[in-house]
Design brief:
The structure holds 3 protein chains of 3 kinds. Chain A is mainly alpha-helical. Chain A has 14 helices and no strands. Chain B contains 12 helices and no strands. Classes of the chains: A mainly alpha, B mainly alpha, C alpha/beta.
């Protein structure tokens, strides 16, 4: 499991590079030049199933969704299979309303808070794993894997129970710690407290992925690099910044990218905890699209919001995608 | 000396605290599931289940069609994981090992595909499936779950393929293997742990999926366990014992799979590295 | 008297059905082949959670099979998310053939074209349906559903706890009720009343009691009327009730099921539908002997509190391939025999006055009946159903007020959302 993220980015395959330092060219060996390497149609044939699947199973729904976003689609049209084009009315309705922009702002903020927490805690725990003795490391690894493996729906249910107003163990502990106003606290009562629970849940579930992979990556840092650094008189901090960090950088980029995507489009966790409540104050973009579209049966508007959601995700990740494009270019 | 003593204690102490933090919710789920109701709704939490009861589990399993849903969930999950691995393996091999025009564009395409927010496209998918007369069937579920996990599977496997030293493959080909034989005899065994590790992501995604099956399959005979779990929750309201028992049952296969595969995957990886 | 009426209905029914036979052949031939092909078919019927008692289901299945040779499969649906489920189902090729639709949501579905025209069924068996109960199913002059049952909320209370508090008789006015609740709070360790913050059907009843309404007409459009002082007054009453309860302010009566809370025996009373007593008994058999019911008291003893007349209709899906069989099912299920049985079993108000005698001796029904005259519904307009979609703005309004917000200000906060939904095109 250790090298899951790395694969998303050729530049980020530290575990993979193990014995091959200094940086070998990955994947593509420029010099190897065996004739089969340019085997005309072979790569396309190998890629065909994946491409077909993507085109049909993702492309088609995307196009369909795009088309729906220009339609007036409510229960009547859905039931009678009517197609009523209404131009950009749906987009106008969304973009001129105040809700949408509030939700966008909230989603960006929500993603940022989560990703920062996940990356910082994940990195720290990953580095801690590298420092631990064998037994303790194994123990912590087991704990991390358990949290990581919990299916979202089960995890969400468990968190609802942990934070239950009556008989919830969190309120009990806070009460005993002297916070008596928390004895019967309703965590779902306000935007801030609901978000706190959701963020805790997401961070708890996501940190193990970062920590375990980061730990695996650090084990591949060749010892010689540290020795060289200490010969140069570097302290612990300096060897961290001059050896560890540069080595992990591609990995950190790739993981951050993945976490941004995952958190931004997180649906079951956010929705199941409090259905976007109280008063729709914890709706992020995917929830908003779902509530307006499916929940409120305003399917055309829902399609338009989901289109805008995809657009927002593209904008947020564009920096990283550009970087990947460039890198791949360099390599070929 | 003094510093190293402190230096030895704090990582262990921190690790212990973290361990408790990460494990507690999982522990509490199982503990609650085994406790009699009086111990669950008690003014002071009962930290360890002393009077173990299986009644909550019984209630959870007694739900209508439980075993049908189990079979459906397992079928859909296993099939979509297998399909996505097979399709991804081809693609990953091409992307990691071959040079061709458009390679870069394809990698970015799969990255983009990985970003697709499936939950918000649900009505579009519903209408497609409905108009193809495929509602209340496990086929569309399997097919769409395969697609949900495919991009990340390709990108991850690509890393694993790239990690298999090329010399091995070339040596095999010098020995007279065809490219395909070289792949099957040399690369594939080295990839096995990578495949297992990658499959975990697919298992989680397909096992958890919820909004799509909710809208596509109204026929309870064709539904999956996440619906059972969520309906269970609304039906039993504040019956936390039964709810936690259901959650435990739902989580258990994935927890076992993870612990099992994680070890295999990691050890396989190091083995591979040593051999390489 | 009763017998006479019944026989009159039977005769009328026979005449209509004879007449209907003549016209039926040509009209339905495209849809399904009629009586001859019924044998061996299975009809799918969606009923809502709590609507059809098992005994009734069994009897109707038997009666239907005897008459048509076809089977009925009942599928019980949850209220949560039901609108989405019905909408998508009605758009499919194989929808449930018959489905229960809540009366507040019926006009919207009638307007979508997803429900079959039942005017011929009405002609046959609906001559004496209580007009006010059938009203929600009529759209554009056509009958899109058949009234099935109606009910209004009552107070369900725990006699043991009330006795323990030393209360001898049930309250006749709202103030007496409050006083009793206070006594229970003082003299027992029970929670006097279980009333979650979002039981908006109860609030609707209070609004009806004040003579107010949830919407008003502005030009040719409907808009929110929550800022009406009558609504505020009703909400203040609700708040006073809620002050006797420790129930969560941001939950409705179904999460958790209030009857299950009550079943634990530590709650003095709750405001609910008659069938919820059955839920309580199912959860805890021991509670059965302590169950009591009374009419929700109004301001004066002469006039009980206003109530929301909840009800359900049975409709046939337009896309059903077994429409004539489905209509046959309605004729069986809504026949005096089974409609009467349902009234007897569940204590609900049947769809015609002549069947009300079945309610005699039924404690729930006797508690519910006095208030029914002053009952009302949500606005019976197609635009209304959208307001009930989750997240329901009325529920947000209630939670806000219970958390200390001024009713007028809280109304202002949700007005935009309500108006948006009322204006939503169909």
């Amino acid at each position: 499991m250790s090298v899951q993220t790395e694969g998303t980015d050729t530049a980020g395959e530290p575990a993979v590079r193990k014995a091959r330092i200094p940086r070998p060219p990955t994947g593509e060996d420029r010099g190897s030049g065996s004739s089969s390497r340019r085997a005309g149609a072979a790569p396309y044939l190998l890629l065909l199933p994946a491409l077909l699947a993507t085109l049909v199973l993702l492309g088609w729904p995307l196009v369909k969704n795009g088309m729906l976003s220009f339609q007036n689609l409510n229960p009547r049209q859905l039931i009678q299979h009517l197609t009523e084009w209404n131009g950009v009315d749906n987009y106008k309705e969304i973009l001129t309303g105040s809700d949408f922009w509030k939700v966008v702002e909230r989603s960006v903020f929500f993603t940022a808070v989560n990703v920062v927490l996940i990356m910082v805690l994940g990195t720290l725990i990953g580095l801690l794993l590298a420092r631990l003795g064998k037994k303790m490391r194994l123990t912590l690894l087991v704990g991390l894997v358990l949290a990581w493996a919990m299916p979202y729906i089960a995890a969400t249910t468990v968190y609802q129970w942990l934070f239950a107003q009556r008989f919830g163990v969190v309120n009990w502990v806070l009460d005993k710690l002297g916070w008596h106003s928390m004895a019967d606290y309703n965590w779902m009562g306000s935007q801030f407290s609901t978000f706190s629970v959701i963020i805790l849940l997401i961070v708890w579930q996501s940190v193990p992925f970062v920590a375990i992979n980061l730990y695996a990556a650090t084990t591949t840092i060749p010892k010689e690099l540290y020795e060289a650094a200490s010969l140069d008189g570097a302290g612990a901090w300096q060897s961290f910044t001059s050896v560890t960090l540069p080595f992990l950088r591609p990995f950190l980029y790739a993981t951050t990218f993945l976490e941004v995507i995952w958190v931004f489009k997180a649906f079951p966790q956010v929705f199941a905890i409090n259905e976007g409540g109280p008063d729709r104050l914890t709706e992020t973009l995917p929830i908003y699209a779902y509530v307006e579209g499916v929940g409120n049966q305003h399917f055309g508007v829902g399609a338009a919001i989901s289109f805008l959601t995809i657009l927002a995700l593209l904008v947020i990740t564009s920096y990283y995608l550009r970087m990947v494009l460039k890198q791949e270019e360099d390599e070929l | 000396m003094k510093r190293s003593l402190f230096g030895r204690i704090w990582p262990n102490a921190t690790a212990a605290v973290l361990f408790v933090g990460f494990v507690f919710p999982v522990y509490w789920m199982f503990a609650t599931a085994f406790k009699p109701t009086n111990d669950i709704i008690s003014e002071n939490p009962v930290w360890f289940p002393t009077n173990v009861t299986l009644s909550h589990f019984k209630k959870a399993v007694d739900a209508d069609h439980f075993w049908t849903l189990v079979v459906n969930s397992v079928t859909v999950t296993v099939l979509s994981v297998v399909f996505s691995l097979v399709i991804a393996l081809f693609a990953a091999f091409a992307l990691a090992r071959m040079r061709f025009k458009g390679r870069r564009g394809l990698i970015v395409t799969f990255m983009l595909a990985q970003m697709a927010p499936w939950e918000v496209m649900i009505i579009a998918i519903y209408m497609i499936v409905r108009d193809d007369d495929m509602l209340n069937s496990l086929v569309p579920l399997t097919v769409f779950y395969t697609m949900m996990v495919l991009p990340l599977t390709i990108l991850t496997l690509r890393g694993y393929v790239a990690a298999v030293p090329k010399d091995l493959e070339e040596a095999a080909m010098v020995d007279g293997c065809t490219r395909f034989q070289a792949f099957r005899k040399v690369i594939f065994p080295l990839l096995a742990p990578g495949l297992m590790a990658t499959s975990l992501f697919g298992f989680i995604t397909a096992w958890n999926e919820f909004p799509l099956v909710l809208i596509l399959n109204k026929d309870i005979e064709k539904q999956t366990l996440p619906l059972w779990l969520s309906q269970f929750q609304t039906a039993f309201g504040d019956d936390w014992g039964a709810t936690m028992a259901a959650s435990s049952l739902f989580a258990l296969p994935i927890l076992i799979l993870f612990i099992f595969m994680q070890r295999k995957a990691v050890s396989g990886l190091t083995d591979g590295a040593v051999k390489g | 008297m009763k017998r006479k009426l019944a026989s009159a209905i039977v005769i009328a029914g026979m005449m209509v059905s004879v007449a209907a036979c003549g016209g039926n052949d040509g009209k339905d031939s495209g849809k399904d082949a009629g009586p001859g092909s019924w044998k061996g078919q299975t009809l799918t019927v969606w009923t809502m959670d709590g609507s059809a008692p098992p005994q009734w289901t069994k009897d109707v299945q038997a009666g239907f099979e005897k008459k048509t040779g076809a089977k009925v499969k009942f599928e019980i649906q949850k209220w949560d998310g039901i609108q989405q489920k019905i909408t998508t189902a009605l758009s499919e090729d194989n929808p449930p053939d018959v489905l229960e639709v809540g009366n507040t949501q019926t006009p919207a579905y009638a307007a979508t074209g997803g429900l079959a025209d039942l005017s011929d069924v009405k002609k046959e068996i609906g001559a004496d349906w209580t007009p006010s109960l059938s009203q929600s199913s009529v759209f554009d002059g056509k009958q899109y559903a058949a009234p099935w049952y109606f009910a209004n909320r009552v107070v369900i209370y725990n006699k043991a706890i009330w006795a323990k508090a030393g209360i001898k008789s049930t309250p006749k006015t709202r103030d007496e009720f409050f006083k009793d609740l206070e006594t229970i709070g003082k003299k027992t360790d029970a929670e006097p009343l279980y009333l979650p913050g979002q039981n908006w059907y109860f609030l609707d009843g209070l609004i009806i009691g004040q003579g107010g309404d949830l919407v008003k007409k502005q030009g040719d459009k409907y808009v929110s009327n929550l800022s009406d002082p009558k609504v505020s007054a009703a909400m203040e009453t609700y708040k006073k009730y809620a002050s006797y309860s420790k129930a969560p302010k941001d939950k409705d009566e179904a999460t958790p099921q209030q009857a299950q809370v009550f079943a634990k025996g530590k709650t003095g009373a709750f405001i609910g539908m008659g069938w919820e007593a059955g839920t309580a008994v199912q959860a805890n058999k021991a509670i059965e002997k302590d169950l009591g019911y009374f009419t929700i008291p109004g301001e004066t003893a002469a006039k009980p509190e206003g109530v929301f007349l909840g009800g359900s209709n049975l409709a046939v899906a337009q896309n059903s391939k077994k429409q004539s069989l489905a209509k046959e099912f309605l004729k069986v299920a809504l026949s005096d025999q089974y409609e009467g049985e349902l009234a007897k079993l569940s204590g609900i108000v049947p769809n015609k006055t002549s069947l009300q005698s079945n309610l005699k001796g039924n404690a729930v029904a006797e508690a519910a009946a006095p208030a029914a005259a002053g009952g009302g519904t949500t606005p019976l307009i197609p635009e209304w159903a959208a307001v009930e979609n989750t997240p329901n703005p009325i529920k947000s309004y209630m939670t806000a007020v219970l958390n200390g917000k001024d009713p007028a200000a809280a109304a202002k906060d949700v007005e935009g959302e309500i108006n948006k939904r009322l204006a939503q095109q169909n």
